[in-house]
Amino acid sequence: MTELPALGARVSLRYRLPAGETRPFTDVVGHVEQVDPTVQVRTRHGEVVTVGRDDVVAFRVVPEQPVRAGQIRNLEHAAALAWPGTEQQWLDGWFLRYGDGATRRANSAVPLRFTSVAEIAAVADWYATRGVPALISAPDRLFRVPEGVPTDAENLVMTTDIGPGDLDDVTVSAVPDDAWLTLYEREVPAPVLAAVVDGELGFGTLAGAAVGRVALTEAPDGTRWAGVSAVHVVESARRQGLARRLCAGLLAWAGDRGATRAYVQVVTDNDAARRLYEQMGFTLHHRSRYVRAEDLV
């Protein structure tokens, strides 16, 4: 049997067609989602092509398509609206978020338009009046962190194409009810979880043991993004595939509502989460990290 590609890899895969076809082989280009019991490749249009392992003739790894700064800016804009804290304000090119100190993401400023470092002092003042440290979210190519300035919590921003699908047994509600919050087991206030700007939220539950959040927001270029976050499986139910089924259900729900692209933000050293999303077809789009405004001014 031909060697099989790695999960998550972007490949051009040649495979054997059934007898009677006009040609013996054909090719598919996309990201590998599964290699056992069959090989599954998701194309850039969201179609999943399933190939028998013994029908794989050859493959080659294809470099990821380059990501432009404008694409990063559009995705970061949609992501900022999806996790905006309980108070937001535009300050020149910065989108400022405050969420009573709960999570870095909800309490950080994102450079979404062309900005200058001179504006950072004003950003710091805005957070100082709210009694929390001024954190700058610094995505690749949108904000250059000067050499020697410490950063924290680097994130992998991973993306994939999605479309309508099957929710499986995932139930989705518009707000995080008491049962959802109990399963979540993390100290993030409900108002922070339930905040979104110009978008729609879904809070999913599976088997009374797994919960997650998906936010639908639109980027300036018109792309309707689905951002999956707050995924948690209770300890007694882990390693049963619930996280993957939950996320798949959330993405299906989002696809039914017009989302065509999805993203997750994974801390770099969270190997388990990264492997999960790679197996679901997510690939690296860009990286982001946090830096304290005081270290910049």
From TrEMBL:
<dbReference type="InterPro" id="IPR056934">
    <property type="entry name" value="SH3_Rv0428c"/>
</dbReference>
<feature type="domain" description="N-acetyltransferase">
    <location>
        <begin position="157"/>
        <end position="297"/>
    </location>
</feature>
<protein>
    <submittedName>
        <fullName>Mycothiol acetyltransferase</fullName>
        <ecNumber>2.3.1.189</ecNumber>
    </submittedName>
</protein>
<dbReference type="Pfam" id="PF24551">
    <property type="entry name" value="SH3_Rv0428c"/>
</dbReference>
<dbReference type="GO" id="GO:0035447">
    <property type="term" value="F:mycothiol synthase activity"/>
</dbReference>
<dbReference type="InterPro" id="IPR016181">
    <property type="entry name" value="Acyl_CoA_acyltransferase"/>
</dbReference>
<keyword id="KW-0012">Acyltransferase</keyword>
<keyword id="KW-0808">Transferase</keyword>
<dbReference type="InterPro" id="IPR000182">
    <property type="entry name" value="GNAT_dom"/>
</dbReference>
<dbReference type="Pfam" id="PF24553">
    <property type="entry name" value="Rv0428c_C"/>
</dbReference>
<dbReference type="InterPro" id="IPR056935">
    <property type="entry name" value="Rv0428c-like_C"/>
</dbReference>
<dbReference type="InterPro" id="IPR050832">
    <property type="entry name" value="Bact_Acetyltransf"/>
</dbReference>
